[in-house]
Amino acid sequence: MRPLWRSYTRCTDGIIFVVDSCKEDRLEEAKLELLKIWKTACHIPVLVLANKQDLPSALDVSKIESQLGLKELGSTYHWHIQPTCAITGEGLDEGVEKLHELILNRRKMTRNGVSKNGLVKPSAAASKSSRKVQRSHSHHY
Questions:
Q1: Domain ranges of the chain
Q2: pTM score, whole prediction
Q3: 18 — alpha (psi -120 to 50), left (phi > 0) or beta?
Q4: Cβ partners under 8 Å of residue 74, min gap 6
């Protein structure tokens, strides 16, 4: 499914990316996948769920954030990392609320003349004639 990121992110408002907090050896792979997603859709807010925080072997969220290289991404990328436990549901509501907030902020920026990728849009009059609704050709079942 990984080669299909582009087709799945075309009409997406937000992405939830789950990492296993106990598998430090898989964080490099997760980082590469996250970068691939952002390469095709840098404007889409991402919620990173650091799962299994209830286990004693879980990495600290700040260490996961560092190993995923989130702080180095710059202001073009909108993300939030949330410690969670999928079994108890702890942290999930807070994470989804934060993702919702990121999505609303992105929409607000888009309406206020900033494009999805953070660049200033041309004037509304200049771009009005070229606006078209893009249809997704991907089918989700």
A1: 2-112
A2: 0.74
A3: beta
A4: none
- pLDDT for position 132: 41
Confidence of residue 128 (pLDDT cuts 50, 70, 90): very low
Q: Is 70 left (phi over 0), alpha (psi -120 to 50) or beta?
A: alpha
Q: How far apart are CA 101 and CA 72, in angstroms?
A: 22
Residue entry with tokens 């919702």: 100
CATH of domain 2-112: 3.40.50.300
